[in-house]
Amino acid sequence: MAVGTLALFYPVFVPMSAAALAYAGHRALYVDWRLVLTQFLNGPGRTSRILLLLFLVLNWKSLPLAWTVRIFHSFIYHVLRRPKTLPQRALFHYSVTSSRTSLLETDYNIHKSNSTYFADLDVSRSHLVTHLLGPGMPIIGDNAKNQRVRDKDGNVVKGAFGVGLGAVFCSFRKEIAPLQGYEMWSRILSWDRKWLYIVTHFVVKGKVRPTGWDGRRMGRTRNKVQKADGSGEEVDFSRYVIATAVSKYVFKLGRFTVHPALVIEASGLLPERPGEGWKGGETGTGTPEDLGELDEAAEWDWKRVEAERRRGLEYAEHFAALDGTNSLFDGGEDGAIGNFPLG
């Protein structure tokens, strides 16, 4: 998701998409589909056409503009179907997206190419962020009116709202075979004064089920965590993880970096925090109070949110530290092994 994408989504892409659908529907009324289908199935060269259609269906994810369609589908889907409110505990809940490996995603090892995981991550993150933080984005985007974001001098920040992807790390554990189905489980891992960290697990399809869905019922209700052997014993769910990725997003108003807590708060998912709030302290993420004993059965208060943020930050900080590897580049001061074609 690039900076500026969401700034263009509502005023540009939604009207354009609506106009295109209206025109397509108008044209479709004047087509004799029965005749078209008969000619397609029975006319000369039908075998080639049917095989080509089958190939396109099996590889639709890899066709031109398919990535764009998948991304904007996630935006439109959650604009139309997201519940008006979500429980605050949903902040760290998973968004589950299903997919399948196409033949064109397969490499010479006859499994899903590692490079294609990143296109799937774009889609999975878009579903998560649009669903969770969708209500807060227009509020932050119209900052001139709502005045949620101010600079260090107290001035209201102006500019177009956008979301930028800063980095992605992916660890591969198992292979995914051609045409194999899998699920992407994405959730917010943590945040600091600049970055929102998201963790995504690629999971064997159908092996793990959440205890329920937040808000509106979507699809088949899953009211139990599926056990591998049908018993009540604890299950190591990591056995079903194919790969795990960590990504970091930055929110922008023009060139100004927006604190992630402001976007989360505008979406109604942050409980009020005493003292200096979610932007206080030396780290800009709240004063480091002793959280004490947490009641796991209680409703989500600011202490439970902060405890989960700190737990995720223990992993995110190691990922963020890799930014320092930029300084290792010396421009080949001691030479290079060569300059090769077809890169």
From TrEMBL:
<feature type="region of interest" description="Disordered">
    <location>
        <begin position="274"/>
        <end position="293"/>
    </location>
</feature>
<keyword id="KW-0472">Membrane</keyword>
<keyword id="KW-0812">Transmembrane</keyword>
<dbReference type="InterPro" id="IPR051490">
    <property type="entry name" value="THEM6_lcsJ_thioesterase"/>
</dbReference>
<dbReference type="InterPro" id="IPR029069">
    <property type="entry name" value="HotDog_dom_sf"/>
</dbReference>
<comment type="similarity">
    <text>Belongs to the lcsJ thioesterase family.</text>
</comment>
<feature type="transmembrane region" description="Helical">
    <location>
        <begin position="50"/>
        <end position="72"/>
    </location>
</feature>
<protein>
    <recommendedName>
        <fullName>Capsule polysaccharide biosynthesis protein</fullName>
    </recommendedName>
</protein>
<keyword id="KW-1133">Transmembrane helix</keyword>
